[in-house]
Write a structure and sequence with these properties.
Blueprint (H helix, E strand, L loop, with lengths): L5 E4 L3 E3 L2 E3 L9 E5 L3 E3 L5 E3 L3 E12 L5 E2 L2 E14 L3 E3 L2 E3 L3 E5 L3 E3 L7 E3 L3 E4 L10 E3 L5 E2 L2 E7 L2 E5 L3 E8 L3 E5 L3 E2 L4 E3 L3 E5 L4 E9 L3 E5 L2 E5 L3 E8 L3 E5 L3 E3 L3 E3 L3 E4 L7 E3 L5 E2 L3 E4 L1
Parallel strand pairs: 1-4, 2-5, 3-6, 4-7, 6-8, 7-9, 9-10, 9-12, 10-13, 11-14, 12-15, 13-16, 14-17, 15-18, 16-19, 18-20, 19-21, 20-22, 20-23, 21-24, 22-25, 23-25, 24-26, 25-27, 26-28, 27-29, 28-30, 28-31, 29-32, 30-33, 31-34, 32-35
Amino acid sequence: VSDQLILNTGAELIFGALALGRDNTSTIAQTISAGGKISQTNSTSFVAHGKVTIDSLENDVVLKNSGNDFTGSLTVENGKTLEITDANDLNLGATSVSGDVSIGVSGTLDQSIVAGKGLAIGGDFTVDLGDGAGSGDDLSLLNAGNSIDGDMTILGADQVSITTKTALHIVEAEVANNLILNSKGRLYNANGWDVAGTTVINAAGQDVVLTAAHDFKNSVSITARSLTINDVNDIVFDSITLTGNLKVTAAGSVTATGTVKVDGRTELIAGGSSSDIEFNNVNNDFIGSVSVSN
């Protein structure tokens, strides 16, 4: 047990049981730097009150024991790969990892929104929040400087809000409540998303390509260049604003309650003769050709 830890080593670093800071009101900064892999022995816990900064000098950081608890912000610099588990909420500072990142928390995962404090992840990014609906286990990554180059997987989330300055590839998403995505790059996917709440996507000037077996159980609002979207059931749009083309495929009905504006072509495909296609807002504006089939 220590109030403060400032540790620099040129070799691998393996922690046993570690408790830093006196309580969760501590503002004392903890600083760790190692020239080798940073890990911990089995069945131990890393508990830190106050800010923790880890510089792994292009090595792996593996702190995934279930008892770990970072009550202040956690910053990981110059990581090769990163595996973190936290028994409660986790707040990320500026984090740069050239490879894959895996984070499991029993609470909310969020981050600093200060300019220059975003995530820079070169590989795949997996977030497991565990509990889902009504748990309050939210994923909130709203720093405008975020960059996630690999595939992103979101498991067990209640609410999800993500902002990125580059393309975003969410291969899987389990969202028990609302999903909000803001992307300055292309937004696309490999596997289906299951979203119980509303979905809002803002990717102005970019293409949104969601062709997998999605299930959007509530309304969908999208601003983008072009949109291609698929739903395994009915799909209901609140609003759509596109400077390019729109293609919607659903196994059920395709409807829109709000305003739809499409500058390019529109293609709407519903799931059979018993499924409806309804876009009846008086302010809708389809500038290009429109085709409808079911």
